[in-house]
C-alpha cells in the first residue's frame, strides 16, 4: 500500500489550508477540459454547465448535448466516491462521510430525473483515460441521435 500516491484525496479545509486547496484545484489539469477539447475536435457541439430544471432535481451536467439529450458528468474520484479511489476508510471519514453520501445521493437523483426526462447520462470518472471517455460519449451521442442526416429508408 502506498497511501501517498493518491492524487484524488484532499484534506479537510482548515483555515490555513483552504487557500492551499484552491491553488491546487486551479493548477490541476482537468480531465474535463481534455474531454471537451476532444469532443470539440470531433465536431460535437455542447453546452458547458447547462442547468436543467427537472422534476425533483436541477442537475447541471459538465457537458450537455441539448439536442441529442445527452448529459455528461465528469466526477471527481473522491467527491463522488469512485469505487477505486473513493471512500478510504479511516481517512477523514468523520468529516467527509456525510458530505460524500449527500453527493452520491444527489448524483443518483439527478440520474433518475434526467432519465425520466428522456436524457441519456454518461458519467466519467476523473481517473478515466480522456480519449476513451470521449469515445464513450460520442458512442452514446451517435446512438441517441441516429440518422440525424435525414430520414432513413425503411
Ligand atoms: Zn477513481
TrEMBL record:
It comes from the Bacteria. One of its GO terms (biological process) is mismatch repair. Keywords: DNA damage, DNA repair, Endonuclease, Hydrolase, Nuclease. GO terms for molecular function: endonuclease activity; hydrolase activity. InterPro entries: DNA_mismatch_endonuc_vsr, Restrct_endonuc-II-like. The keyword Hydrolase applies. Residues 1-29 are annotated as: Disordered. Pfam families: Vsr. The keyword DNA repair applies. Belongs to the Vsr family. This is NaeI short patch repair endonuclease. It comes from Streptomyces viridochromogenes (strain DSM 40736 / JCM 4977 / BCRC 1201 / Tue 494). The lineage of its organism: Bacteria, Bacillati, Actinomycetota, Actinomycetes, Kitasatosporales.
Amino acid at each position: 500500500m502506498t497511501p501517498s500516491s493518491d492524487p484524488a484525496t484532499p484534506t479537510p479545509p482548515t483555515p490555513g489550508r483552504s487557500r492551499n486547496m484552491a491553488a491546487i484545484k486551479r493548477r490541476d489539469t482537468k480531465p474535463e477540459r481534455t474531454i471537451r477539447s476532444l469532443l470539440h475536435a470531433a465536431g460535437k457541439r455542447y453546452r458547458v454547465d447547462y442547468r436543467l430544471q427537472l422534476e425533483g432535481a436541477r442537475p447541471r451536467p459538465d457537458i450537455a448535448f441539448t439536442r441529442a439529450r445527452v448529459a455528461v458528468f465528469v466526477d471527481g474520484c473522491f467527491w463522488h466516491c469512485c469505487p477505486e479511489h473513493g471512500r478510504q476508510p479511516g481517512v477523514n471519514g468523520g468529516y467527509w462521510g456525510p458530505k460524500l453520501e449527500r453527493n452520491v445521493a444527489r448524483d443518483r437523483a439527478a440520474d433518475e430525473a434526467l432519465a425520466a426526462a428522456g436524457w441519456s447520462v454518461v458519467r466519467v470518472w476523473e481517473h478515466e483515460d480522456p480519449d476513451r471517455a470521449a469515445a464513450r460519449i460520442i458512442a452514446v451521442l451517435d446512438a441517441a441521435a441516429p440518422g440525424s442526416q435525414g430520414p432513413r429508408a425503411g
